[in-house]
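Hi there,

I know you've been waiting on this one. I reran it after we fixed the sequence typo, so this is the corrected version. Both the input and the resulting structure follow.
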Amino acid sequence: MEALIIAAGYGSRLRDISESKPLTPVAGVPLIELGVRQAAAAGATRVVVVTGHAADRVEAVLPALGEIAGIPVVAQRVDDWSKPNGFSVMAGAARIDGDYLLMMADHIFSAGILQDLARAGSAERGVTLAVDRRVTSPLIDPDDATWVATDPCGRIRAIGKTIPEYDAVDCGAFLATPELAKAIAAAVASGKAGSLSDGMQRLADAGRAGTMDIGEAWWLDVDDPRAHALAEAEAPVELKEIYG
């Protein structure tokens, strides 16, 4: 299985800390290195990194990260990184055959989340999303979170930043099949903007979007200075396999 890391965005909320979100250090380790090493630890045999903003700088570090992680790490540039993140997913998925771990470059996870997610596939699902039921956790930014509403079987009913009712939050990690990129493309063709959530909702409407509850496991979306400060304090404790 391979992994796809989305690292194309501008990262405006972290601009005071770093000019490139994927290269933002967390306790001395860049976010993109954390993602690559965590993907490898979860069993990924190759990582595709979708680049956009500051692509040259991000791509320059990938060969060294491949050496560190012990697996190939390759770049795929998206044509227009200002477009919604679904376009990055489609660009990266075009380089991958079969199922893959899909990760956002600014999300970090305790090791068990990705390891469990890698084994969570089912023929009944086109995608499986890692979700956190602790929707009032102080680690979550409610103004930026992507919320999820599930049915009694754990399938996704609705997903988005503004849905009125929800019972979980999107952790930014997915086990995707080729159906996901096709669903995003179909959403764009129907007039949607092309976000990842647009494709997820399309699969949800078809009953093909499942979830994996992470329970009490730790994760963090490092999207602004507050979250970065939390990551600097907590990541060395929670990610001992990386920080020693």
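Quick highlight: Residues 55-69 form the longest helix (15 residues).

Best,
R. S.
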